[in-house]
Amino acid sequence: MENLFIVSPAPHLKGKESVKKLMWGVIFSLLPAGFFAFYFFRFYALKLISVAVGTCVLTEVIFLRLRKGVFPSEPSALLTGILLAFVLPPSFPWWGVVMGGVFSILVGKQIFGGLGDNIFNPALLGRAFLMATFPVLMTSYLEPHTLNALTGATPLGLWKFQHKLTPLFPLALGEVPGSLGETSSFALLGGAVFLLLKRYIDWRIPLSYLGSFLLLTGIFSSLSPKFASPLFHLFSGGLILGAFFMATDPVTSPVTPLGRWIFGVGGGTMAGLIRLFGGYPEGVMFSILFMNALTPLINRGTRPRVLGERR
Asked: In the chain, what are the domains?
């Protein structure tokens, strides 16, 4: 009777990592991109990030108070606000950011039951809502270092509609018109390396997403120069932000290794097809949201079988 055993559900071995620590790590990895956004767009960057973060956090507080729920200790609403601001044009009006933040938290997260139960990436769902509601505002971009209302076409827009290619160095550095946090590929890659080294994200999803995307664009660019080189596609638009910071969301992506390969290949292929042949120059948002919807099916189809279980 002296050696009693306590029976409890799995897991029995727990690591030092936590949801809270993981999310703070992702926020830390986004700081370089945030710095470059402030350097290029100054007041616009500060306004967008502040309004988006404040709206997301306040919306979650009010909703949980009304439901008499407990406000979580993890900064998921803060992270959603940052990611939402990063995928919006710098000149987007503050009231539109408020609408997007409320939609991201209520429809993208809390309506499903909160963190861990949501199907879609909340920030991308908020962007999709704003894209459908304000298509003109969502496609009006500022030139870097410009503090007035002058707008310029993004590199993808120039390639898609005017058949002009932006040089790779300013494209990778971020001195081009685009959404707030997706222009500087160097800054995003630095944050992605940190996430991979800390194992906060699984390498399978970004590798399969980028690999399938680059393979597809490489095949078509070899057939005709009008499709542009894979490097141009890699550093333009929201490809890197989506592959490392959106598609790897542990809640809305598959949990099995095989499922993550399927998720990445499907998303990268869809993003490439939309860019090359669609009427819209960017397909990252649509591809990730579509694969989010397939995640429950992928998890079910790739679940490891218990020994002796019938298929």
From this structure: 19-300 (1.10.3430)
